[in-house]
Amino acid sequence: MKTLFASVLGVSLFACSLHVVAMPQAAANGQKPPNSAAKTKPAADPGEVKFKENCGRCHNPPDALSPREVKAVVQHMRVRAMLNAEDEQLILKYLAP
Amino acid sequence: MKRVLFILAGLCCFASVVRAQADVPIFSGALAFQGASTGGANSFTPIIVPVFVAPLGDHFLIESRGEIEGFIARDNGTTGPYNGHFFASFDYLQLDYIANSHLTISVGRFLTPFNIYNERFPLWVANLADTPIIYTIGTRTSGSSNGGMVRGVAIDRPNWKLNYTAYASAGTTTENLQSGRTAGGRAGVFVPQAGLEVGASYQRFLQNGGSNIAGAYFAWQPPEIPLDVRAEYAHSPAGHGYWLEGAYHLAPNRDMNTWLSRLQVVGRMQQYFHGNPTPIDAVPSVNVNQFDVGLNYWFEHNVRLNGSYGRQYSTTGNFNVWNFEIVYRFLFPAWPGGH
User: Fold this and answer.
1) What is the pLDDT of residue A15?
2) Are residues A47 and A92 in the same domain?
3) Closest to A63 (Cβ–Cβ): which among B246, B302, B333?
4) Which of A11, A65, A82 has the CB atom closest to B246's CB atom?
């Protein structure tokens, strides 16, 4: 049990330290910190939001999908990721507007 | 091998039959090459994992995934000439009926939905090439089941969802299509805005005298930072254990795309405590602790390079585990044509 707590603590500290390290690097690259970026960003596409919430947990958006192949992709992921019908439609529109 | 090639040929024929549809079937999957050094024993594994998906209208779907892999290693572990063997298997070949958001019915061969590793982390998604020590707990005998499954979102609220899966499988010993005689289910609560999911699994293994297997899982991908935390616990009469993994892209947020943000550092801790395993359980007969650290790099969205180092500690000896992997993810329509 001690090992479990130690590993949980270790992973958390590791993640926090990387976050702190990554921020100055982003500034050096000319990137805005996430808070200021959020203030200036336009409202996100609801399909993009659903993609990030569901599909983005495991992978990035595909590079390019033609409208004729997107249905197979999204229906496949509806079954795998247990998306509801509304989310499926929003993601369909996002991937093949 | 012949059986797998025969089924793949059948799927190609099927694809040409449904060619008239506007929504075409797709071929997807991954090509990978893995190299490993486990306690000084080197091995090389080329793998192709083809996925075929054919939508049949709005409610029916055919999905399939095969796996053809070679295993090249020295005859006596660390000495002798290198020899190669090739294996083929069918991970799933299922017909889905998507009734509504609450219910999807699947029949055929499907991935056994015990915890999340087996279903959600194919080699192009898994952060480390090595499968966890407890992987075989709850996924005997092959990681796949032959039978029927229902799944869906039982309760769907704007801020949280309760998802479920229940299945029954027949015992099969046919080459490439093995499965255990089992029944079980999984339930999880997903909080989309927090990127948080927790759940539990249960399986009754209905052969070899019968046994109860239980598990729990946790996944957290906070929307603000590109952190990925996953964990699983599994318990069976053969043994019990857990793994806990953290992975982080070197970026302050998930939207950044720079050379540095494509780099991901990974750490994983595992502990396994033996029970009374039989050969069919495919778990160690001694207690094992292992840690792994790794680096992933995405050259493009569909090419990933992974390297990792781990050390395993057990009463039978301690040794280093090195892994290297390159994965190419592909996706194309079943036949060429315009957009």
Assistant:
1) 44
2) yes
3) B302
4) A11
**Domain span holding position A48:** 42-97
* Cβ separation A84–B193 shorter than 8 A: no
Which pTM does this prediction carry? 0.85
Question: Nearest CA of chain A to the CA of B2: how many Å?
Answer: 27
Q: Which fold has domain B2-333?
A: Porin (2.40.160)
The verdict on a CB contact (< 8 Å) between A57 and B219 is: yes
Residue A31 pLDDT greater than 70, yes or no: no
Report the residue of chain A nearest B263, measured CA to CA: A22
Per-residue model confidence as pLDDT tens digits over B7-26: 555 655 555 555 444 689 99
Q: Do A79 and B244 touch (CB under 8 A)?
A: no
| Domains identified in chain A, total number | 2
Provide ipTM, 2 decimals.
0.86
Q: In DSSP terms, which residues pair with B111 in a beta bridge?
A: B144
Of A15, A23, A76, the CB nearest to B248: A15
Give the burial class of B70: count Cβ atoms within 10 A of its Cβ; 0-12 exposed, 13-18 middle, 19 or more buried.
Answer: middle
pLDDT above 90 covers what percent of chain B?
80
